[in-house]
Amino acid sequence: MTEQMSKENYEKLKAKLEGLKKRRAAISKAIGDAREHGDLRENSAYHTAKDEQGLNEMRIKELEAKLADVEIVEKSGRKKSDGVTINCEVKIKALDSGQEFSYTIVPEHEADILEDKISPESPIGGALIGAKEGDVIEVEVPRGLVKYKIIAIS
Predict the structure, then answer these.
(1) What is the dihedral of CA 118, 122, 125, 128, to 10 degrees?
(2) What would the pLDDT profile of 4-56 be if each residue is shown by its tens digit?
(3) What's the pTM value of the predicted model, to 2 decimals?
(4) What does the alpha-carbon distance between residue 12 and residue 83 come to, in Å, rounded to a whole number?
(5) Looking at the domain that runs over 3-72, which CATH code has it been given?
(6) Which part of the chain has CATH 3.10.50.30?
(7) How far are the Cα atoms of 36, 58, 109, 126 from residue 64, in angstroms, in the given order?
(8) CATH 1.10.287.180 spans which residues of the chain?
(9) Among 3.10.50.30, 3.90.45.10, 3.40.50.720, 3.40.50.2020, what is the CATH number of 75-153?
């Protein structure tokens, strides 16, 4: 299944992949140095380096698979008629308190509430997807049902 991702996150993952690939040489050297210490059955440095190599290779394969099946989603490709989609910044107002919030809708793995980035899998994010400017959405939150009006989408 194709995963949606921002260009920024795609570049971060690519850089992380390159870093992991560069670590291969250092890990191989550590294995070689540990081998020179003799008996491999009781050589903790050797076993530690081999474990690190396995974890590094596993992470490389995971990142390669993720990056091979990704769809880059940019803000500029969105039409206003689409309503709220991934990578939209949405300004909403709670109708009960008048408090305003701004969120960026991102894929789940990029979500970070401290940076006001929420995913469509969150209650508010899910209610916002597809909604248009001026719409009122209802969201079930721990304190009950809250209504929000969408003020702006960018």
Answers:
(1) -170
(2) 777 888 898 999 999 999 999 999 999 988 888 877 777 888 889 999 999 99
(3) 0.61
(4) 28
(5) 1.10.287.180
(6) 75-153
(7) 33, 10, 16, 29
(8) 3-72
(9) 3.10.50.30
Which is nearest to 151 in space by CA: 79, 88, 73?
88
Classify residue 110 as left (phi > 0), alpha (psi -120 to 50) or beta. Answer: alpha
DSSP 83: -
The predicted model gives 71-89 an average pLDDT of 73
What's the rounded Cα separation, in Å, for the pair 27 and 52?
7
- Residue 91: the pLDDT is 96
Give CA–CA dist 46/30, Å, rounded: 8
Angle between helices 7-35 and 44-68 (to 10 degrees): 160
- Between CA 16 and CA 13 the distance in angstroms is 5
User: Which residues neighbour 23 within 8 Å (Cβ) at sequence distance 6 or greater?
Assistant: 56
